[in-house]
Amino acid sequence: MTSTTLLLRRPPRPVGRVRKAFCALAIIGCLPYLGLKLLWLGGSRAGIPADSVLLEGDGTMLLAINALTLVMDALVVLLALALVRPWGRGLPAAPLLLPLWAATGLLAPMMSAVPGQTLLALFSDRPSTSGTEAQAFLDGWVSQVVYGSFTVQGLALGVLLIGYLRDRWGHLVRGRARDLPSTRGDLLLRVPAGAAVAVAAVTATVHLLWAAGTGWGLEEEYAQRLDAGLRLNEAGHTFFALAAVTALLSLVFRVLPNLRLRTAVLLGWVGGSTLASWGGWWLLMAFASVGGRDGGEQGTTAVQWFTYSAQMTSGVLVLLTSVRLAGRYLDAPRARPRPTDPTNAVRTAPPTTPTLPTTPATPPTPAPPTSGSSAGGPLLTDPPESSLPEGSLPANGLPPSGCPASGFPHSEIPPAAPPSPRGQP
Predict the structure, then answer these.
(1) Distances from the Cα of 11 to the Cαs of 7, 92, 97, in angstroms?
(2) How many CB atoms lie within 10 A of CB 361?
C-alpha cells in the first residue's frame, strides 16, 4: 500500500456536538427545497404562474429536471451525514470529496450573491432581481424559499467540510506555496494547468463585461434585465474564476510563492468547483431548451455557449491538475515519516566522556575468605555479581574471565593498590 493511500485513509478525529448541530442545520435547510420538488413531481403547480415558460411543451423535460435537482439536494443530506457519522468519515477520499467539490461549486455563488441581492432589494425602489426572474419562472415566494434554503445548506455544509478537511489532511497544507515539490519538467501537470489558467481568464473577462452591464453576447431579454442584482451575480462568477487562476499560478507556477498553502488550496477548491459546476449546469439548461438563461424566451447565444463550455472545461482542468499535484505532494519524502536508521544514529551520536572523580576514592574493603578461596588479598577484578558471590573464586581455582593475567599463583596475588587521586588504576 502506497503512502498516498495510507494518508487518504487515515481516520479523522471524533466529531463534537457543534458539528453535529451543523449537520442537523444542513438537513433542515434541505427540507423546503425537497418538499417543493416532491410536490412538483406529484403534479402540483404550487408557485408556478399559469403563463410560466416551465409549463410549455409536454412537461417531460421539466419532470426530468425536477427529478435531477431532487436527487442533487438529497445528496446534500447524505454528504452532511457522511461528514459526521463514523461510516462516512472512514470512507476513501474520492467518493466523498468529488460530490463535496461539486456541491461547493453550486452553493458558493448563491451564498455570495443572495445577501447582496437582498440588501439591494431593501434599499432600492426597483423590484428585486429575484422577483423579476420569478415573473418568468416562478412566484416571488418560491425564489425566497429556495435561495434561503441554499444559503443555509451552503453555510452548514461549509463548516462541516472545513472541519473535516482540517482534521484529516490539515497537517499536509501547512506552510507556503514555495514549500511544495518542484513542478518543473512535469508536463502532465504544467500543460493542463496552463490551459486552465488561460481558459479561466477568458471566462473571467466575459463575466466581468456582463458585471459591468454591457450585455455583450447575452440574449436580448436577459441583457435588458441586467440590473444591479444580476450584475452582482456575474461579479461573483468573475471572482471565482480569478480565484482558480490565482491558485494555479501559486501552486504550479510559483508566481506567488509566499501565498499560504491553505489559502491557495481553498481558492483552488472553490474557484475550480464553481467553474465546472455552473458551466455544466448552464450547458444542461441550454441543451434542455427551457427558455433562455433565467427564464428568457430567446435561446442561448453563441457567446454564451462558448463561455459556458470554456467555464466547464477550465473547471475540469483545475480538478485534474489538483489531483496530480496532490499525488505528487503526498508521494514526496516530506509527506512520509522518515524511518530511523540505527547505524546512522550510532555514527552521529555525540561521544560520551566518562566523568572522573576529583577526590580519591575509598579503597575497597577486603572480603572475608570463603571455602575454596585463597588467603591472599582481594582479587584485582571482582567477578560479576550475577555469577559469583563477592570475594569468591570458581571451583577450578582459576581467576574470573575478566581478571587480567598477573603471573602469580592465586594464593600469592598481591592486594590491589588504592586508586590514584584522578581515579586511574
Answers:
(1) 9, 10, 15
(2) 11
Integer Cα distance of 10 and 350 in angstroms? 37
- Which of 211, 221, 265 is CA-nearest to residue 243? 265
| Tens of pLDDT, residues 320-356 | 999 999 888 877 665 444 444 444 444 444 545 555 5
Q: What number of CA atoms fall less than 13 Å from residue 402's CA on the CB side?
A: 9
DSSP 104-136: HHHHHHHHHHHHHHHHHHHS-SSPPHHHHHHHH
Distance (Å, rounded) from C-alpha 239 to C-alpha 207? 9
Selection from 358, 379, 357, 355 nearest residue 367 by Cα: 379
Tens of pLDDT, residue by residue over 85-113, are: 988 877 888 889 999 999 999 999 999 98
Cell of 165: 478537511
Residue 48 Cα to chain centre, angstroms: 41
pLDDT tier at 131 (50, 70, 90 boundaries)? very low
28/32 Cα distance (integer angstroms): 8
Terminal-residue alpha carbon distance, the chain: 59
- Model confidence pLDDT, tens digit, residues 368-419: 554 444 444 444 444 444 444 555 555 555 555 544 444 444 444 455 555 5
Cα–Cα distance between 213 and 207 in angstroms, integer? 10
Give dist(CA 391, CA 416) in Å, integer: 13
d(CA 60, CA 68): 12
The Cα–Cα gap between 174 and 186 comes to 23
Instruction: Write down the number of H helices and E strands in the chain.
Output: 13, 0
Asked if 5 and 331 count as a contact pair (C-beta separation under 8 A), the reply is no
Strand, coil or helix: what is 373?
Answer: coil
What is the C-alpha separation between 397 and 251, in angstroms, rounded? 79
Of 138, 4, 12, nearest to 83 (Cα)? 12
- Cα gap 385→158, rounded to integer Å: 69
pTM here is 0.73
Phi, psi (5° rounding) for residue 248? -70, -40
